[in-house]
Design goal:
Blueprint: H1 11-19, H2 21-75, H3 80-89, H4 94-130, H5 137-144, H6 147-162, H7 166-189, H8 193-219, H9 228-256, H10 258-266, H11 269-282, H12 287-305, H13 309-336, H14 338-343, H15 353-368, H16 372-378, H17 382-407, H18 410-439
């Protein structure tokens, strides 16, 4: 259960806990509380950065961070969801749990260090040629040092979530980092502006990574150490499961920051900064979904692995119902309060009300369809999800590139609404097809 070690002596208690109908909403509420703290800290940091450096400085910082987040996904080989699924599926076998985690840590370390070196070398070229803003070079070089701790922190967080220590994993991955960054920026690094903000990200990631390593070591202290061949086999299985997810996770990450990147390329860093602030505020609209996804993921994986189709259908229905209700309750007030929210960031941001409202509509669409994308990841439908993600990616980028020169920031925001409608409609069709095949007794439903 969340908050407890997943050892070999407790399988019945773990299984009965995730089967309980009220447990999903209880865990989702707890996760939302933790993520809410992280989001408040993130918005507080964004508010200070925007007031200290304006749209230009915020754009420089967020463009740099966007490139780092995309690179970190590549360094993990998109293993986030695969780790949750595999570790949850191996939850009764401590040796396999440790072997899987160790395999992920090893290849993530190697790839993230290589990615850091590459981004350090390419920073001037990306700044001058792609974004045509040389002020991006220094903060980009600084935040590139955050790639290894960012990637590894996510690995440890996902391992803990897969081991049904959901709250601990979320606290490390979703709450501790933004809180640590805010404290560092306010107390030590604010005087250095954008470079100070970039440094606060690097140091915060390193501190949180240290906590993640200590918590995971303590959680698995009673497990037997895996043999070398077991780690190699776990690495093979993990990479096999991760590679299809790499494409979809990478595309979804790029889609989340398409507006910032498109405006950085086709407009100015200042426009990208204003858009990035709107996007951060709009994340409040999908906070319940990210919390629900975190709570439901290990359950979906466990029910799928146990061929428990009835329970899988029930938990999916409950999650969809909760998501639809929360989408309205959260996003409608935010849409109404958009002008007030933006004025708190400064006069430069007050004119972006329409952009923020469009992004909140996109958040409501994403929220209303619930954890359907997570469902496909946890039920071994990675390739189908990849195909949908590729189609959505091409659609959003094409629309954003076409609309940005005419509508400025409203262009990529409108493109996000269209892509969310397309993505969630197609994914919902795939979920319905899964249960149709399950009812028909198709052998492909529980393929391994």
């Amino acid at each position: 259960m969340p908050g407890q070690d997943c050892d070999d002596s407790q399988p019945e208690r773990i299984d009965s806990r995730i089967w309980r109908p009220g447990a999903l909403l209880t865990d989702a509420g707890s996760v939302a509380g933790l993520r809410g703290l992280g989001l408040i800290a993130s918005l507080g940091f964004s508010l200070l950065l925007a007031r200290d450096t304006g749209g230009q400085g915020a754009g420089t910082y967020f463009i740099s961070v966007t490139l780092v987040l995309i690179t970190a996904v590549i360094a993990r080989l998109g293993s986030d969801s695969a780790l949750v699924r595999l570790i949850s599926g191996h939850r009764h076998n401590g040796v396999l749990v440790v072997a899987t985690a160790r395999a992920a840590i090893r290849f993530t370390t190697v790839l993230s260090v290589a990615a850091t070196g590459g981004l350090l070398l390419l920073a001037p070229l990306l700044s001058d040629e792609l974004f045509q803003d040389s002020t991006i070079t220094t903060p980009l070089r600084i935040v590139s040092l955050a790639i290894p701790p960012t990637a590894l922190t996510s690995v440890f967080g996902r391992c803990l979530i897969g081991a049904h220590r959901v709250l601990v994993g979320v606290a490390i991955e979703g709450a501790a980092l933004p809180i640590a960054q805010l404290i560092l920026y306010v107390t030590l690094l604010r005087r250095w502006g954008v470079s100070g903000a970039a440094t606060s990200l690097v140091v915060a990631n390193m501190l949180v990574l240290g906590v993640g390593i200590a918590v995971w070591a303590r959680s698995t202290a009673t497990h037997d150490r895996p043999a070398k061949n077991q780690v190699l086999e776990a690495k093979r299985l993990l990479i096999q499961a991760s590679l299809p997810l790499l494409g979809s996770n990478l595309i979804r990450t790029v889609l989340a920051y398409t507006g910032t990147l498109v405006l950085g390329v086709f407009s100015t860093s200042s426009a990208a900064g204003v858009y990035a602030i709107c996007a951060r505020i709009a994340r409040v609209g999908v906070l319940p979904l990210s919390s629900l996804n975190t709570a439901v993921a290990p359950r979906l994986a466990a029910f799928h692995a146990d061929h428990a189709t009835t329970e899988l259908r029930d938990i999916t229905r409950r999650a969809l119902t909760a998501s639809a209700v929360l989408a309205t309750c959260v996003n409608v007030p935010l849409i109404a309060a958009a002008p007030l929210l933006l004025r708190t960031f400064g006069g430069e941001f007050a004119g972006a009300t329409a952009t923020l409202r469009i992004l909140l509509v996109a958040s409501a669409i994403d929220m209303a369809t619930g954890p359907v994308a997570m469902f496909l990841q946890m039920t071994e439908r990675e390739r189908a999800l990849l195909h949908v993600s590729m189609l959505t990616f091409v659609t959003q980028v094409a629309i954003a590139a076409a609309l940005t020169p005419v509508f400025d920031a409203n262009g990529p925001a409108s493109a996000e609404v269209i892509s969310q409608l397309l993505f969630n409609a197609l994914v919902m069709i795939l979920v319905v097809r899964y249960f149709r095949d399950a009812n028909a007794g198709s052998p492909d439903v529980h393929r391994s």
